[in-house]
Amino acid sequence: MNILLTSAGRRTYLVQYFKEALKKAGLSGLVHAANSQESPALAAADRRVVTPLIYSREYIPCLLEYCKREDIRLLIPLFDIDIPVLAAHRGEFEAAGTIVVTGEEEQARICNDKWKTLEFLRSLELPVPASWLDAEEAIWALREGSASWPVMVKPRWGMGSLSLYEADNEEELRVLVGKIHREIGENYLKYEAAQDADRCVLIQEKLKGREMGLDVFNDLEGNFRSVSVKEKMAMRSGETDSAVTVENEALQQLGARLGRSLRHRGNLDVDVFDCQGVFYVLEMNARFGGGYPFSHCAGADLPLALVLWASGREVPQTILKVRPGVRAWKEIQIQVEHSNE
């Protein structure tokens, strides 16, 4: 079984996890990595391909041709803006024998568009922070006392901590909204933001509480299978640097509800704030998130589960079970590539 990780970037650990998964499953195959430029994950993979940019007209034809030529069975995107593009072409890949591990197009939109995420959560009657797409509406609500300063200001279609700011007053809010509009126009966020260019900045009341993370595991049919709960101990540039797995029945039930309602495929990375026992879901990412390694270290093995499902085999519940109380840290390592010369 051959596997392709797209937008692989620096996720060398996922390359290794999938290599190990093939061995554990007793299957032969190679782990391929794709990226729009040379990166550590490409050096770690068995085979590599440098692709056009995601929004290029040549991106999907390039991947399709590669999947056919290399007999790719599983294609797993690792970057938010990759997901809706691949979801829109799932049928073409399936016709070529490749399973794309994403949700449907609407599921991808719900996760990538933070405003749609809020609407989805409200439909489930889950608590969400006070949120606005217009600075003047936010200021009016803050003046009226229905929300309080500070507020977080960020791209509606964004990821990590890119263009994420905190405003403490009206003047700062107006300045930051304009700043984010300019920054969006100068980077890759401009493509998705073009869907609603006048309302592409999200303003949210800042939550105060423990930062938690969920990995919600669904199978390749979108059926909920398991959930891992973590407390984030340290963050860096919007990604979890250290976390500990915990046992929390309420959060496990929340993860199960999200998995059964969204019916994504593979992993759903969920950011949650625990505000004195009230759980606010802040964001959902339908992919392997930066917090997945902490679930993996504690016993869950979603790469193995995906390989088994793709080969038509059942997955014992133990493969996705997480041990509580396991704390782990990320570290910086060097990925060396040896040339053929």
UniProtKB/TrEMBL annotation:
One of its GO terms (molecular function) is ATP binding. Coiled coil: none annotated. PROSITE patterns: ATP_GRASP. Keywords: ATP-binding, Nucleotide-binding. Residues 118-311 form the ATP-grasp domain. It holds the Pfam family PylC-like_N. PANTHER family: ATP-GRASP DOMAIN-CONTAINING PROTEIN, D-ALANINE--D-ALANINE LIGASE. This is ATP-grasp domain-containing protein. It comes from Candidatus Enterocloster faecavium.
